[in-house]
Amino acid sequence: TTDDLYGLPLDEFIGARDALARELRQRGEREEAEAVRQLRKPSGPLWAINQLARTQAEKVRRLIEAEDELRRAHGASEDRFRDALAAERQTAAELVKDAARILTESGRPPTEATLERIAATLQAAAADAEHREELTEGRLSEELEPLGFEALAGVKLPQRERPRRSEPAARPR
Questions:
Q1: Do 115 and 100 form a contact (C-beta atoms < 8 A)?
Q2: pTM above threshold 0.85
Q3: In sequence order, what are the residues at sequence separation of 6 or more whose Cβ sits closer than 8 angstroms to the Cβ of residue 38?
Q4: Burial readout 125-138 (b: 16 or more C-beta within 10 A, e: otherwise)
Q5: Residue 32 CB-half CA count within 13 A
Q6: What is the CA 20 to chain-centroid distance, rounded?
Q7: C-alpha 144 chain-centroid distance
């Protein structure tokens, strides 16, 4: 199945994809064969994220829950928002560390730029309902950018209470 393709070692993707497409074509499933043939080999960051879904499913689920809590915390108390943000960042950092280990063990030690791409895609996929299923099933096929500040338009952020000013002290002349 196509889901199985995304679980393979990265170097095996193209050969397995082409074999699956041939098999489908031989069975007369031409549309499915063409759809499989069109699948692109995932980038290193995507491959690592797809492996996380298979090896760290609980952490991936926690990241999605943390993104949901962060969204609910907008407009709530500053403490709740801060706690939700800390939980989201902690889980994302753990997953990026796991992805680095996966890449290193596969003979592809990640660069800082690769880790940044992984972090951005994880955050964006966890926050986007359209991509959550692909994330949890380990079949993301495109790198994503996290939602920018424009996504917060109209969201009421928590206000800090300002300390009350006492009357200014008279200054000596």
A1: yes
A2: no
A3: none
A4: bbbbeebbebbbbb
A5: 12
A6: 28
A7: 8
The span from the CA of 41 to the CA of 11, in Å, is 9
91, two tokens: 């889980």
Query: Side chain identity at 55, as an amino acid letter?
Result: T
Q: 3-class DSSP state for residue 91?
A: helix
pLDDT, mean of each 10-residue run, the chain (173 residues): 87 95 95 93 94 95 93 82 90 96 94 94 92 92 72 40 49 53
115: exposed, middle or buried (Cβ count in 10 Å: 0-12, 13-18, 19+):
middle
The overall longest dimension of the chain from CA atoms, in Å, is: 97
Residue that is written with structure tokens 């499913």 in the block: 57
Residue 47's pLDDT is: 96
Question: 14: Cβ–Cβ under 8 A, 6 or more apart, which residues?
Answer: 41
Give the whole-angstrom CA distance, residue 22 versus residue 26.
6
Backbone region of residue 107 per phi and psi (left: phi > 0; alpha: psi in -120 to 50; beta: other values): left
